[in-house]
Amino acid sequence: MIMLIAPPLQPLAQSFAQHGIAAERILWLELTQRKEVLWAMEQGLSSGACSLVLAWLDKLTLSEARRLQLAAEQGKALGICQLPMAQVDSNHPVTLKLAISTAGVNTARLQILKRRGGWPVPELHLRGLPALALELPHVEPGVVTLRNGKAGLNHR
């Protein structure tokens, strides 16, 4: 299962199908209360039933990030928090911290801000995004924080 929690736009089953993900594997939770979003994310991560949990949040505290990290390790799941750039300087205890923003027509800029056991990496430019199916490389269980620039990748 893939759990989507409080996405800013309605997920489109066609988009998932184009990438080989059956609609039956998507669990979409339309929650408005921050406390409910965090609770649902923690439950999804720790359950062992979801391989991927994505949530859109306005902020994430250090203690919340740590709880989500532990839940992800327990359930052997990958958690992704979409946060605003205002949180970029937060020192979250997460496995991987990325910044994604637009860098021109059909191009995104990817910065790896933090990664477990690794050195800084130069920013990457991803071109041809509408036709490109981005796959996450194997990442050990944990919480990844994704950050969005002015017009980032969360737009469908």
Give the strand order of the largest sheet, numbering strands 1, 2, ... along the chain.
Answer: 2-1-3-4-8-5-6-7
The stretches of 5 or more residues where confidence is low (pLDDT under 50) are 131-141, 146-156
Tell me, what's the shape? globular
C-alpha end-to-end distance: 21 Å
Could you characterize what this model shows?
With 156 residues, the chain is α/β, with parallel strands linked by helices. The protein is 22% helix and 30% strand. It is built from three helices and eight strands; from the N terminus they run βαβαβαβββββ. An eight-stranded mixed β-sheet has the order 2-1-3-4-8-5-6-7. Helix 2 (34-47) runs parallel beside helix 3 (62-75). The chain is globular, with a radius of gyration of 15 Å. It starts with a strand and ends in an 8-residue tail after the last strand.
Tell me the layout of helices and strands:
Elements: E1 2-5, H1 13-18, E2 26-29, H2 34-47, E3 52-56, H3 62-75, E4 78-84, E5 96-102, E6 107-115, E7 124-127, E8 142-148
Parallel strand pairs: 1-2, 1-3, 3-4, 4-8, 5-8
Antiparallel strand pairs: 5-6, 6-7
Helix pairs in contact: 2-3
